[in-house]
Specification:
This is Glycosyl hydrolase family 67 N-terminus. The protein is α/β, with parallel strands linked by helices and about 775 residues long. α3 packs parallel to α5, α9 packs across α11 and α21 runs antiparallel to α22.
Length: about 775
């Protein structure tokens, strides 16, 4: 029997379901899987006399895992002149050297396994090759680490030892991802992830190396010239000779604080406001007519001043296209990003321009790392069926001589298939030729037990539906986008049935049941997000009564509560990038439900709106301001469709209540951007005013409610904690028929805004008169 944290699993069943028998033990790369079986009892681990710290650590790791096998008594001893039988010889032992192991020929993460009689030599490169050899050996024996808290330990007394020499050197020398909760040392080492400690500064560092707060007042010329104005807080003026000298001096100070770090990013900040001064434009024109020209010219100067470090810069967004007539210095690293690429198919199919850019950068730079996006920023928990693109993409990169990868994912282990996606990414970065099918099956059957087959069917059905629909998968997408594709009503019903079966089959095992329920969270999330877009359908969140009032269905309210509860139990921090905790999500829907429940008490529901200015053409019409549908405020950059918004225009309308009635109060909520108020193109109004009239001609003096919040996050960081701002006025029962509303927009983004001068929107969902 094999038993780990996943419950009982026979060894034969494990080997069959994980694909190890069928594929010949795929996990140790590129070798014929000829193994011999011996007992685990009384095996010893031999390390060199006066062994190094990495050798001692690798030995302790091997001992730790093998000691969990039945009847195993594993000891670690230093080598002496005697040859010990039934031993693992780890590291630079005299025994290994006598067997012609040439350590000088091993790259830093490479290893060799060499059987000699009843002994096995494990030798590795200067970095972590020895440790990685140990972990691959353990994987051959049936050990697995599916997650930081899930390690499968085989329970056979037998050890499977290679019968022939095996060696492996990874094609990708730098391998990392961003699943934060999976970043512990044990998990990272097991999956051969490179350390982020190699980076002294990691991307978007212009503002770190020349902070606007330190230089904006004294040296505005250090920053981008945009439409004739210097704009601190955007990018740097890369043609200014003082800028490069100041940056080099500041960078050297930071290097002195972390001298062991190899990579230092000197890279654009996360906006597209690059300098448009004559000198920067001239550099860009000289080097191919692209903004990356001035960047490489600048970064080359930094690299020449600091020859002992790798100076990394981004080829991202406006700088993705390679320059011409210039070469990157040998110690310049190009971090090439494909944020624009769609994810329903491999990037070489969805983004041929990126393929061309990769090849072009390869002609001018010798060190390239790919920043690959495997995340849906706007909806972390939503279904994101990109699993079958991972191998194709990684293989494409290695075929184009890329030797470093950063596979961005999100930090939420409870996100859509996050643990499986991490497992696939890690395995494929280590061995790009591995079978994705076998890796998926191995994980699902090992981590979910007997429920794995149903979750595999769920994955396959979603993939087939995605392909059939022809839908394009966007990293800034939403479940609503897929409501008629792979998240259609019929497909959602199939998925739920599969999860019902999965839960039923493991219902007696609390650990496995919880894992299945966590894997179901994306379907629950999709049902909520899609449900709010429909009324009176089987999957809608809302149902309209005979009185015309729309209310949330009790089962949908319960679904929101259940979803949030499970997210919190799984320690989900954010549901969207930069904003949106589970509590925030619940508060958003609680607001909707409570306000809709009170609709029958309002005097404005269903009443006529007379527009004086018009909403954005893509917005719901002004009549929606009294339809009783409230919007969710858990926005990222695009608001809930139930908000009405005005762009570059003040909001002006008259509410006709249809008759003279007493007005006690008028209330409107306006949406505030929570993720990046200095980037997104909407804001709270400066003020909202209400005036009332009996005849629609003579109005009372407007009651003006001033927005109390400074919208600039640089001087008011707390602005991100305002989700909606109420604008409320009491009228104490005054008799009137008409309410005139004016919401004073900023109209354009202010000077402090990264996209200063562009039209800005204001959002509201309902006017509520009591």
């Amino acid at each position: 029997m094999a038993k780990g944290n996943n419950g009982d699993l026979s060894r034969l069943q494990f080997l069959k379901t994980s694909g190890l028998i069928a594929t010949g033990l795929t996990f140790l790369p590129g070798m014929v899987r000829s193994m011999t079986t011996t007992t685990a009892a009384n095996f010893r681990i031999i390390i060199p006399s006066m062994g190094s710290a990495p050798e001692k650590f690798a030995a302790e790791q091997l001992k730790q895992y093998l000691s969990q096998l039945p009847e195993a008594t594993i000891s670690v001893v230093e080598e002496d002149q005697n040859i010990i039988e039934n031993a693992f010889y780890l590291g630079q032992t005299a025994f290994a050297k006598a067997q012609s192991i040439d350590f000088n020929k091993l790259s830093e993460d490479a290893y060799i396994l060499k059987p000699v009689g009843n002994n096995l030599i494990v030798a590795g490169g200067s970095k972590k090759g020895l440790l990685y050899g140990v972990y691959d050996l353990l994987e051959e024996m049936g050990f697995r680490k599916y997650a930081p808290d899930s390690t499968l330990i085989p329970k056979s007394k037998a050890l499977m030892i290679p019968k022939s020499v095996r060696s492996f050197a990874p094609k990708i020398n730098y391998r990392t991802t961003s699943y934060g909760a999976m970043g512990g040392e044990d998990y990272s080492n097991w999956h051969k992830l490179s350390s982020r400690s190699e980076w002294g500064l990691f991307v978007h560092t212009f503002h770190t190396l020349i902070p606007a707060k330190d230089y904006a007042d004294t040296n505005p010329e250090y920053f981008s010239l945009i439409n004739g104005t210097r704009r601190p807080g955007t990018q740097l003026c890369l043609s200014n000779p003082e800028v490069v000298q100041v940056l080099i001096a500041n960078l050297k100070k930071k290097i002195a604080e972390k001298p062991a770090s190899r990579y230092w990013s000197v890279s654009q900040d996360d906006n597209d406001q690059y300098c448009g001064c004559d000198n920067c434009n001239a550099l860009n024109e000289k080097f191919g007519g692209v903004p990356s020209g001035s960047i490489i010219h600048f970064v080359n100067k930094v690299a020449r001043a600091i020859p002992g470090k790798m100076i990394s810069t981004l080829a991202y967004w406006y700088s993705r296209k390679a320059p011409k007539n210039i070469k990157a210095e040998p110690n310049v690293n190009i971090m090439l990003c494909n944020i624009e690429s769609l994810r329903h198919a491999p990037v070489y199919e969805t983004d041929p321009a990126f393929s061309a850019d990769l090849k072009d950068w390869g002609t001018i730079a010798s060190d390239i790392i790919i920043w690959d996006y495997n995340i849906q920023f706007t909806n972390f928990i939503a279904p994101f069926p990109n699993l079958f693109t991972l191998k194709s993409n990684i293989k494409f990169y290695t075929d184009n001589n890329v030797k470093a990868l950063f596979m961005q994912a999100n930090n939420e282990p409870a996100a859509d298939m996050a643990l499986l996606r991490a497992y696939l990414i890690n395995k494929l970065m280590w061995q790009p030729e591995a079978s994705e099918k076998d890796l998926i099956d191995d994980f699902l059957n090992g981590y979910f037990g007997s429920a794995g087959m149903y979750i595999r069917q769920y994955i396959d059905d979603m993939q087939a539906s995605l392909v059939k629909s022809g839908m394009k998968l966007n990293i800034f997408g939403d479940p609503i986008d897929a409501k008629e594709a792979f998240l259609s009503a019929d497909m959602m019903s199939k998925y739920n049935n599969l999860f019902d079966q999965a839960e039923k089959t493991v219902g007696a095992n609390k650990t496995l049941l919880r894992r299945v329920q966590t894997a179901r969270l994306p379907i629950m999330y999709a049902a909520i997000q899609i449900g709010r877009t429909e009324i009176n359908t089987e999957r809608s969140m809302y149902k309209q009564g005979t009185d015309g009032i729309t209310l949330a269905k009790p089962e949908m309210k319960a679904l929101v509560q259940d979803f949030v509860s499970k997210c919190k139990a799984e320690n989900v921090n954010l549901i969207r990038e930069r904003a949106g905790t589970p509590d925030h999500y619940l508060a958003s829907y609680t607001r909707i439900f409570e306000k809709m429940d009170a609709t029958s008490k309002t005097k404005s529901f269903g009443k006529k709106i007379i527009p004086l200015t018009m909403p954005n053409q893509k917005s719901k019409g002004p009549e929606a301001l009294t339809d009783g549908l409230f919007g969710s405020f858990e926005s990222w950059q695009s608001a809930d469709k139930n908000f009405v918004y005005y762009t570059g225009e003040h909001m002006d309308f008259v509410l006709d209540l249809g008759a003279l009635i007493p007005i006690n109060s008028v209330h409107m909520d306006f949406l505030n951007p929570q993720a990046q108020p200095d980037w997104h193109l909407f804001a709270l109004p400066k003020s909202v005013s209400y005036s009332i009239s009996a005849d629609g001609k003579k109005y009372t003096e407007p009651v003006v409610i001033i927005n109390p919040h400074n919208p600039d996050p640089a001087t008011n960081p707390a602005i991100i904690n305002t989700y909606v701002q109420p604008f409320h006025s009491e009228f104490n029962g005054e008799i009137a028929r008409y309410v005139k509303v004016h919401a004073e927009s900023l109209l354009t983004t202010p000077k402090w805004h990264i996209r200063s001068g562009q039209p800005i929107s204001i959002y509201t969902d309902q006017i509520v008169v009591m």
